[in-house]
Amino acid sequence: MKKLRLTVQLLFTILTNGYTYGFLNGKIYQGRLKYACVPGLNCYSCPGAVASCPIGALQALLNRQGFRIPFAALGFFFLFGSLLGRFVCGWLCPFGLVQDLLHKIPLFRKRKRLPFHSVLKYGKYVVLILLVCIGSLFLFGGFAKVPAFCKFLCPSGTLFGAIPLLAANEMLRSQAGRLFLWKLGILIFILVLSIKVYRPFCQYLCPLGAIYGWFNRFSLVQLHWEEERCISCGACENACPVSLTVGEISRSPECIRCGRCVGACPQKCLHLTGTERSRRTRQKKST
Amino acid sequence: MRFWKSSRQYTWLAGLLIGILCLGMGAIGDQFSVIWKKAVMICMECIGIG
Predict the structure, then answer these.
(1) Nearest chain A Cα distance for residue B12, angstroms
(2) CA dihedral A215, A243, A98, A272 (to 10 degrees)
(3) Whole-structure pTM value
(4) N or C: which end of chain B has fewer CB within 10 A?
(5) End-to-end Cα distance, chain B
(6) Helix (H) or strand (E) holding A273
């Protein structure tokens, strides 16, 4: 499962950032595919990006259309969320992949969570409401309407957008100032923290994770736990990178469906599956 | 109760339909062109310049 996930993560990142001409010339893709959004946090100013970032799209609609309902962005959230939930975070997000790889570096004593996790985990909801929604409508810069999350926080934009563009484009490089340094500082802080703590951005700050977490309860892709076969050995809880208990795993908004618990279970009573499979298993048990 | 339990397993389908409906509403409201216009220009805020 680990190798499969890494392969899917790598392939999806390459597929959604495959515009190599952009990387070579410091330009971005301007084709029709950018009418659509990718499921994960993938900056549309990344030179290789072939589609739009869903959080960027939401902010663009709030910036331009004010209090009108941003149906297009909501459509993508419902589409990806209903089918996959936070499976997107675990398997399809490029910035999640970066954090996963950094956490493999054998430096520091590894931690699954930060201290005060029970409070800090709500940070992503604060970011979603304050920066993505309110910030994009009117908070920062008076009523100038800026994509506040992209401007002040998003490390994905700095890593996949700013660094390659500034490296290849002399004119943009000459314009980089304090704001860029602020964003670079945030990026470095998150990347270094990722070596010690498992996916700190996803656990505490990502507004997309906050949105998809809500869908985890009923998305098509589910982690099904066969309670009656469970011997309570705790192997799944030890394997879980975000420290969830076996009771929480299947429906918690924090579960990124990485599948480590599935591989760790000696009884094979955890399954990463669609709801149809869960239904059939339940039926079998009842007969 | 049984109906409620079994129908809950298909909530994702309702979510999917809402998603498709929202995408349709977005298309009618010309919201995709707003997204496209933003996405094909280098976003200065995203790269820490604007």
Answers:
(1) 5
(2) -50
(3) 0.90
(4) N
(5) 55
(6) strand A270-274
Residues of A in contact with B20 (CB under 8 A): 75, 79
Per-residue model confidence as pLDDT tens digits over A18-64: 898 988 888 899 999 999 999 999 999 899 999 999 999 999 998 88
- Would the CA dihedral through B25, A37, A80, A244 be positive or negative? negative
Chain-chain contact of B22 with A71 (C-beta, under 8 angstroms): yes
CB A4 within 8 A of CB A22: no
Closest CA to A256 of A206, A190, A187, A191: A206
Structure tokens, A57? 């799209």
CA A214 to chain centre: 13
Secondary structure of chain A: what % helix, strand, coil (to 5)? 60, 5, 35
Alpha-carbon span A242 to A100, nearest angstrom = 12
Which tokens is B37 given?
Answer: 């216009």
